[in-house]
Amino acid sequence: MTRQISIEGIAKRYPAPGGGETTIFENLWLRVDRGEFVCVIGHSGCGKTTVLNILAGLDQPSEGCVIVDEKEIAGPSLDRAVIFQGHALLPWKTVLGNVAYAVSSRWRRASRAEVEERARRAIATVGLAGSEDKKPSELSGGMKQRVGIARALAIEPKILLMDEPFSALDALTRGTLQEEARRICRETGQTVYMITHDVDEAIYLADRIVLMTNGPMAKIAEIVVNPLPADRRQGEIHHDPNYYALRNHLLDFLVSRSVSFRDDPPAGYDPRNPPIVRLDGGEASRSPAAAIRAA
Amino acid sequence: MTARERLQAPLVSLLLLLVLLAAWHIAVSGGGSAQEMDPEYAKLMGQTATAGKSAMPGPIDVAKTIWGHLKDPFYVKGANDKGIGIQLAYSIGRVAIGFGLAVLFAIPIGFLIGMSPMMNRALNPFIQLMKPVSPLAWMPLALYTIKDSSISAIFVIFICSIWPMLINTAFGVASVRREWLNVARTLEVGPIRRAFTVILPAAAPTILTGMRISIGIAWLVIVAAEMLVGGTGIGYFVWNEWNNLSITNVITSILVIGVVGMVLDQILAQAQRLVTFPE
C-alpha cells in the first residue's frame, strides 16, 4: 500500500487570554495509506477537529506541514472532500441543487445534463432517489446527512474527511448509515479520516484507530490496529473473539489513560512513531490492557 | 390562529371602520350657531359662519372627491391643476429612481463592508454620522449643487434610502454561516462565484429587510421633499390643496399616500418571501 497522507510534526497554538500561548497539540505525526479507513478517538478539546480542518485546508498549522500525494497541501482542494458534522447543506437549494453545486464545481465545463446525471447517481448511491427536488428543511436528520455524504462522494475525492458525521442521529439511522458508509468506502477504495467519540463506530468502521490524549498539549498516544476481519457485519462483530479486548482497550483509554498518558508518557515514547497496538490474541504488545490480560 | 379567528378578524376591521366613519360623520354634521351679519359680509364668510356648518368635510364629501379623482386621475389643466394620478406618478417615479440608485450603491458597498472587518471599521464612522441626519437637511445643499429641484428630490430619496440597505447588507453578508462558506472553500469555488451562489442567497432575506425599511422611509420623505421643491408630485399636491383650503382634497391625499405606501411595502414583502429559506 502506498502512503497517501503524511502529517509531519504539526502544531496548533492560540494566543492565551492572559498573554502567552495555549498549545492544543504539537509535534504530531501520522501517516495514512491509500484506501485505509482511519478513525480518530479522543475527548472534546483534544484538537481532532483542528487536525481535520488542517487536512481539509480550512485551517493552517502553526508549525509543521501536511503532505498529500507527495505534495504539501496549501488550502482546500476538491481532492479532499469534507463531510461536516452539521451536514452544512445550503438550505435554499434542493437536494439535487446541493449535490449538483459540488459536481459543477468539480467539472466546470460539464454540460448541465452531465452535471445532473452525476448528481442523480450520487443521490441514488446513498438511497435518496426520489427526494431530489426536496429542500433540506423537508428532510429528516439522517436524510440530510445522506445528502452531505452524496455531495462529498459526487466529486470523486481521493480522501474523505468526516467530522463526527453520525453523532447527531438516532441509533437506528446511525447504524444504517455506518453500514452504507463502510460499503461505499470499500467499494470505491476511498481513503478516509474520520473523527468520532463513539467507540463502537470506530470498531465497526476503522482499519486503524488513532487514540488522542486530552488537550491542551494533546498527543497521539497509540495507533490500534483493528483485529476484526475486513468483511464484518454490524450485528455480528461482538461475537468476534477480539471484540471485547479491543472495546475494553479503547474504553480504558478514554476513561483514564487519555489523561495519564498525556501527563506521564511511557519511557521511550516517540511522537514521530507512536506505539502500534495489535490486540489479535497473545501477540506481544505495548498495551497495558493486554499486559493485564496476560497476567 | 383558528379558522374562526381568521374569519372574525376582517369582520372586526369592517366594524371598526363603520364606527369610525359614523363618528366622523356625526362629529362634522352638528350645526353650530349661525351668526347674524350683513348679507354682503355673509357671502364672503361662506356657510361655516352663516349656517353654522362645520369647516371639516364629512366622509360623504371625501368619498365624492375620491370618486371624482378616480374618474379622471390623469387630467392636465395647467401647471397647478393636474390629476392626482399624474401627481402620484411623479412621486412614485422619483422614489423609484432614488431608491434604485441607492440599491446600486448600497448592495456592493454593503458586500465590501460585510466581507472585510477592516472596511467595516473604516467606513463605520461615516455611516454612523450620516445615518441620523434628516434627509431634508440635504435639500439646500442638493439644490445649490444640482440646481434642479426634481433631481434634488431624487437625491434626497437616494440619501435616505441608502443607509438601512447598506447596514443590512453588511450585516447579512458578515453573518453568513461559516460552514456554508467552508463548503464553498472545500469545493474550490472562486470568490465571484462564491459571492453569487453562497453569500448573496444566504444574505438575501436580510438585504430585503433593509430594502423594505428603505422604501418605507423613501415614501415618507418624498411627501416632505415635494412640499419643499414644489411643482409636481403628491407632496406638492397636498401643500397646494392646503393653500386652496381644500381640506377634502388634503384628506383624500392622505388616504392615497397611505394606500401607495402599503402597496410598495407589500411588493417588497412578497419579494422577501421569495428569497427566504426555511432551515
TrEMBL record, chain A:
Residues 5-237 form the ABC transporter domain. It is a peripheral membrane protein. The keyword Metal-binding does not apply. CDD domains: ABC_NrtD_SsuB_transporters (cd03293). One of its GO terms (cellular component) is plasma membrane. It is found in: Cell membrane. One of its GO terms (molecular function) is nitrate transmembrane transporter activity. Residues 264-295 are annotated as: Disordered. This is Nitrate/nitrite transport system ATP-binding protein. It holds the Pfam family ABC_tran. It comes from the Bacteria. InterPro entries: AAA+_ATPase, ABC_transporter-like_ATP-bd, ABC_transporter-like_CS, ABC_transporter_ATP-bind, NO3_transporter_ATP-bd-like, P-loop_NTPase. The keyword Coiled coil does not apply. PROSITE patterns: ABC_TRANSPORTER_1, ABC_TRANSPORTER_2.
Automatic annotation (TrEMBL), chain B:
One of its GO terms (molecular function) is nitrate transmembrane transporter activity. One of its GO terms (cellular component) is plasma membrane. The chain crosses the membrane at residues 95-114, 152-176, 217-239, 245-264. It comes from the Bacteria. GO terms for biological process: alkanesulfonate transmembrane transport; monoatomic ion transport. Residues 88-268 form the ABC transmembrane type-1 domain. The keyword NADP does not apply. It is a multi-pass membrane protein. It is found in: Cell inner membrane; Cell membrane. Keywords: Cell inner membrane, Cell membrane, Ion transport, Membrane, Transmembrane, Transmembrane helix, Transport. It holds the Pfam family BPD_transp_1. Its main location: membrane. Probably part of an ABC transporter complex. Probably responsible for the translocation of the substrate across the membrane. Belongs to the binding-protein-dependent transport system permease family. This is Nitrate/nitrite transport system permease protein. It comes from Enterovirga rhinocerotis.
